[in-house]
Amino acid sequence: MKLVFLHSSDTHGFLLPTEYQDKDNYNAPFSLSRVSAAIKAEKEKYGADNVVVTDSGDCLQGSPLASYAHTVKDFSALEKFTDAYNEVGYDARCLGNHDFNFGLDYLTYYIDNNKADIINDNILDEETNVPAFGREYKIVEKNGVKIGLLGVTTQYIPHWEPKENVEGLKFVSAYERVKHYTEILRPQVDVLAVMYHGGFESDPESGEATEPHRGENEGYKILTEIPEVDVFLTGHQHRRLNLVTKNTAIVQPGYRGEAIAEVILDIDDQTKKINGMTTKLIDTKDYDPDQKIVDTVKELDQSTQKWLDHPIANLSEPAPIENAMKGRLEGAPFVNLLQQMQIWFT
Ligand SMILES: [Zn+2]
Question: Distance from the CA of 198 to the center of ligand 1, in angstroms?
Fold first, then answer.
């Protein structure tokens, strides 16, 4: 049989195909609505019984719509936002670092109202040392094949977040926890897949270091030291990756929903062993937005546009930037204004 993984990551609240710069342009080549359409089309092609749909986080923050949703204090905007993600039909998801940006109450509402299983192996309750939310793993059965799913998130989050956003939580090495749960899960399943909101500290093929090894990205260590992992569904670095190396299928589908990643495993019907694996990225620009998501967030989108149009200040004279690079280096009235605002707010 063919077992198909469809994976998204780092959609960053870009629910509709717009950057919110040009009010009339809803034709941008990305968005969750296009991701959803692409996933539904591939699911149709291979049959739902052969498909596992996953996501590795960074959903709550990034787009202007995501920022607007956070300003609505009764969570009614977050409710629609969460509904949009539910519409995709994920089997399992893990969290990203940016999902912590708006605080724990906001994140908890999102987790509690998510229809997919959130898998979390390395964000622990500081006191009990057990995962603070979500499930430790999930076993999905597709056509008699048992698939084990783990979920981990970059342990670097406390370096970026204010204390109150991570209060009571302990972030530990994704590598350590994948190793621990692999021992438990591997004997129970035919295929082991790991969702990771994290990427690679070294080139997956050559092993050459691509950044300082500070624990933010532990993908290479997981790849090389935990050979039991068959499918490695990554994110965080916003890279476009799809390859098979060291008997592991690796994918990372860019950001903002520009692509979904597809892993196809060819599985022996008798032994349930993997005979072959292929990977690819499917650009979502060729898929019309999923109308259900468009309808779900229509009002939220209109409110976002109104919010963006709200005047925040008046300038006594025009402040055009003639040369953007020069403006950054030497200052220009409008750049100075933005930077003075940043200084004031921080
Ligand atoms: Zn991201």
Answer: 9
